[in-house]
Amino acid sequence: MKLQFLGAARTVTGSRHLVEANGCRILLDCGLLQGKRKEAFEENRRPLPGGPPDVVVLSHAHIDHSGNLPSLVRRGYSGPIWATPATRDLCSLMLQDSAQIQVHDVNFVNKLRKRQGRAPFEPLYRPEDALNALELFQGLAYGRWREIGPGVKLRFTDAGHMLGSAHVWLEITEPGREPRRLLFSGDIGRKGIPILRDPELPLEGTDILLMESTYAGRSHPPYAESEAELSRIVQEAHAAHRVVLIPAFAVGRTQQLVVALHRLHDQGRIPGMPVFVDSPLATDVTSVFRLHPETYDAETLESLHQPGNPFSFRALRYTRSVEDSQRLNDLRGPAIIIASSGMIEHGRILHHLRNRIMKDDTLLLITGWQAPHTLGRLLSEGATQVFIHGESFPVNCEVRELTGFSGHADQAELDEWVGSMRRKPSHTFIVHGEEEGALGLAQHLGERFQLPDVRVPRQGESFEL
Ligand SMILES: [Zn+2]
Q1: Which helix (H) or strand (E) holds 263?
Q2: How many angstroms does the Cα of residue 80 sit away from the middle of ligand 1?
Q3: pLDDT confidence band for 367 (50 / 70 / 90)
Q4: Which of 84, 193, 302, 421 gives 164 a disulfide partner, CB atoms 3.0 to 4.6 angstroms apart?
């Protein structure tokens, strides 16, 4: 079998790994690279070496794992895309949303190019490519083995990271060899956070492991502490009549924040103040959450049987139209606005920030991991002057970070996950992490669990196993 790492190698976004066995090319994830614009522009357009794969398996719907599927289809891929049913439903919204962003962004660049007398760029893909990709999805529920190629079986288990997220298990039988297991962790979720079930531990173990390392070497405060911190922040903002701007992925983080604010509100731990979820995608995605109670933890399931529902409360408004969104420009505090994108790269959060970044009655509250070179990362690192839509702005608003809402396992949780394996992997590849964290995790796992062969592959590197 051959393994090749084509993305999320010594970086976090652009997840793409190719497995070749018995003449069958299996692509694990097909994500968008985010961050440095020029590099992302070129890398996302680069075709897969050796032509399209035979099969695609998707770990979850986040754009850095799924967002380049439409390009693959645009270049002629017509095989199956295996995913859990909830991932498929989320992708039906997210890939079309992503296509619209691609078209919008390229139109913006092309206006500049036209003025410079240069030829326009094509968008990476268009909404019709996203639709064509959706036709290829094949749903596979958690826990079932399914043959997806000659001598290759697939199973998903619950990764507890977002709705529908999965650990990907392959069982590969090559001629003259015992069957071998390959486990791709996808993104590993956290225990004890609301809505989703905890990640399923990989108790039986595996021969080959591909493992994420986003929060390697770091630890999250317990969830209850983060909720208490959120309550303090909101109370202070209320007292000071501030507007709290929260950038959040439309999928996952937004629903998690809504459920947390709902709970704090019901418990009287935050004062009554308007909360706006300003994202048509988040509004639609919330409906997808309602459609998949099979993925909920016991507490959320229980609350669905109570009057009202966990995704709405009296002070909360979902805004869909552009006009309603623009009306928020004149909104005075105290109020909370949750909008995407989560790393402040595009979308309505950029418009709100542009409108409020120079005002000291605004608090920008960052609740998720920010990729290097994104506006979210620059602001969380204390930038005092930033560019938004090509224009420079001084940062007068306050910027705070709340890490406990992360959807990724921290070091202790990664240890528990690996430690649970009865059969420890003979080959381990650390992916989906910044270089320093990934290298640290590789060394740590080798020492703590005596794993014999732990590597941090580079982009494009391949291994014969
Ligand atoms: Zn993810």
Answers
A1: helix 253-266
A2: 21
A3: very high
A4: 84
The per-residue pLDDT for range 180-206, each reduced to its tens digit, is 999 999 999 998 888 889 999 999 999
Task: Name residue 445's beta-bridge partners.
Answer: none
* Total domains, the chain: 2
- Cα 371 to averaged position of ligand 1 atoms, centre (Å): 12
Question: Ligand 1: distance of its center to the CA of 161 in Å?
Answer: 7
In this predicted structure, the answer to whether residue 35 has a pLDDT above a threshold of 80 is: no
Mean pLDDT for 402-424 is 93
Same domain, 68 and 193: yes
The CA 170 to ligand 1 mean position distance, Å, reads 20
Instruction: Domain of residue 300: give its range.
Output: 223-405
- The torsion of the CA quartet 121, 459, 134, 144, rounded to 10 degrees, works out to 180
Structural domain ending residue among the three candidates 405, 428, 447? 405
Q: Same domain, yes or no, for 355 and 422?
A: no
Cα(327) to ligand 1 centroid in Å equals 32
Q: What is the pLDDT of residue 419?
A: 97
Site of tokens 């381990």? 428
